[in-house]
Amino acid sequence: MADVRTLPDAETAPEAPPSPTHATIRREDYRPPDWLVPEIALNFTLGIERTRVQSKLSVMRNPAASGGALLRLNGDDLKPLGVWVDGQTSDAWEMDGGDLVVTLDGDAHEVAIETEINPAANSKLMGLYASNGMLCTQCEAEGFRRITFFPDRPDVLSKYRVRMEADEAKFPILLTNGNPIATGKLDGGLHWAEWEDPFPKPSYLFALVAGDLKANRDSFTTMSGRKVDLAIWVREADLPKTQHAMGSLKASMDWDERVYGREYDLDLFNIVAVSDFNMGAMENKGLNIFNSAYVLADPDTATDVDFDNISRVVAHEYFHNWSGDRVTCRDWFQLSLKEGFTVFRDQGFSADMGSAAVKRIEDVRILRMVQFPEDSGPLAHPVRPDSYIEISNFYTATVYNKGAELIRMFRTVLGPEKFRAGTDLYFERHDGQAATCDDFVKSLEDASGVDLSAFKIWYSQAGTPQIGARLDYDPDAGTATLLLDQRVAPTPGQPSKQTMPIPLRTALIGEESGTEIAPEQLVMVDGLSREVQFEGLKEAPLLSINRGFSAPVVIHGSRRDGELERLAQTDTDPFARYEAMQELAFTALLDGARGEQPDFEPLIRAVRNTLQSNELDPAFKAEAILLPQEAVVAERLEVVDPDAIHAAREQLRAALGMALFDELSKAQSAVSGSGADLSPLAKGTRRLRTVSLGLIAGGNPAEGARLAKAQFDAADNMTDRQGALGILVSLDGPERADALKAFHDRFENDPLVIDKWFALQAAAQRPGTLDEVERLASHPAFTIQNPNRLRALGGSFGANHWVFNDASGRGYRFLADLVIAADKINPQIAARLVPPLGRWRRFEPKRSELMREQLERVANSRGLSRDVYEQASKSLV
Ligand code: B3K
Ligand code: ZN
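That is the input. Now the predicted structure with zinc ion docked in place:
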């Protein structure tokens, strides 16, 4: 066994200074790997505090690379206990930072390495770690190097053979990727299992689970008639909460066959739920590992939104089997190749499972709340980034959601048939390969015969395009001219911008008739400006533009008085109709925030019309009357004063609540189905109930509190209960404390519900929230070790625009403290809390200064991780 040479001991190593020693990785520096690893055999002797990992790599020189004799095996926090080359102990290696570099003469060898890890001490939850007595892994993006030394990059694909050995009483279930091939028992209560995955995969898709788990089992017969065994593994007590996830999995498998022609390829598909998990879920080949929040649900503990999220995430991870696993990414800059495309695929699935119109509105709402601010702030980056310090920081709304919008534009331009031909070609051409975004576009082009090269700028240019739109109508001539122009503001590293092709689905609606007087057409704005002529108009036209949100842009429309109100009643595109309502609300909110006296009447009339409509379903009504979030209003102002925005929104809520009390009360008390009914009508009725309750409380807080408490007490489902509590937390009066206590006491032993309890209080819109949040941080049930709990408090608080941006700066200090503390435990999660502190440039001078001070404090903390260093230092520029 070789001795440990250059690796410093973690405990005694001096703390790294908070300096730019963290290297920047650049897309232009990509080189193919010098060595390939066609096969790997792993042997795990598992234990919570001590796991021994023996790995045997068959390595061969890559004929496509110029490489030398050095085989670089990435490692993070690992010590090699032994290195063997072709069966002989080797000394021809050295450590370079965390990496193990082996010198090899020939073209093909077998390299064996032994390491030992401590899963219980792994608080980063990357690599192999312990959670609630079980062992599990997370390897994307660079976690495998915390398990064993390996070329930990997505373009090195290997066939895996894995043996696991463990105490049978503690770990009766042993799972990894692929299919089980042998099992056995050993002396001393040990048992073992050996598995093989026939599909070559990159190391980030490796997974292993060992624990005392029980399965909800089912099966699915694929389109070619193969039976696939399905299992969802959880702790025994959670089994009754797995039925919705199982139904979602089967629906996803069926949908991907029908819509994309994709069939599942192994005989087995496993899902495991874990309560300590850095993100939503992970698409490891044949063994998806999930945050328990995206698996476990019943009507008593999960809201309709939770149920929908489970379907969405189960579908997303399943769809990755093709868009991610069978075809993976060449390098991490291509992340949107799998993520943008897979989000687009899961959006299509959810749209087909419920209301497509409502799903589109929800997706755009999220995009505007999360991605637009990212795209206009210091962390703006293209869908295909050019550089990173820590790749975990690039699992962003830009890569995921804007990436999905980009795929949607391709589909809009090509039409559904050509798009499908393109994706078929992509899967066929690149099956088993690590591909690039350019490869994807080339497949679409080759299959469709359409040149998409102009669209590639959407991959490389950051920032949300701003579109000016004006419709000039000449009643005498019966003509109209649509004048469009585009502008993209500079973003970090991209001071000047090129024009982009922007596909806008556009129609004209007759002001009188309310019908389409110019049918929908796809208007492409591909230069700085564009004019479109309309003729033969017999009545005044209303502009219906960016229908279905066909491009991820902001439209600045010049509107005549009454135009939006009429569109809110008549637009033939549901998204555009919703948009007209939102624009009416924005008009009132922006006037109010700028200190002008807003005219509430147009929105009041539009909301009344919407509520009274017999043709609209309740889910659509709820979305249409939902007022824009304060953070979204802030996006539209040059200088942000959160108190002014809050006051304007409260005033508007009050005006609507008072003027429409009867209509809102009717919607709030409407009943459709039981709490267990998950039909679109039942879910929509519940959603409209709570949205209406929010407006009632805005107009009459005492009546709102009374109704909310009644809704809370009578609820036979979590949607109504959480909805009511979400209103009550922002109100004063005895109902608030009573309901919070009842909620806590009833669900004390259900961690996912207690997360809600923390999140609701951190999101409360009342002056005492800051004190409350500080108290909650010392609550016995609070821990920064568990990502869900940390997000529930810290994430919800950072998103609470008015309270977080308290003029005292206490909110900034609290979040900075949380980031610094969390960074020592789990840098990936800590880094996710940083973005709200990066908005300082947009705020009025006093807050701007206070926020910047706290950001500097974070950036200058000793021993800062790469993750937080990158987010904080970039946010300061
Ligand atoms: N691919 C994973 C995300 C991994 C994040 C690593 N920091 C989940 C998903 O998008 O499906
Ligand atoms: Zn994904």
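The first strand starts at residue 25 and ends at 26.
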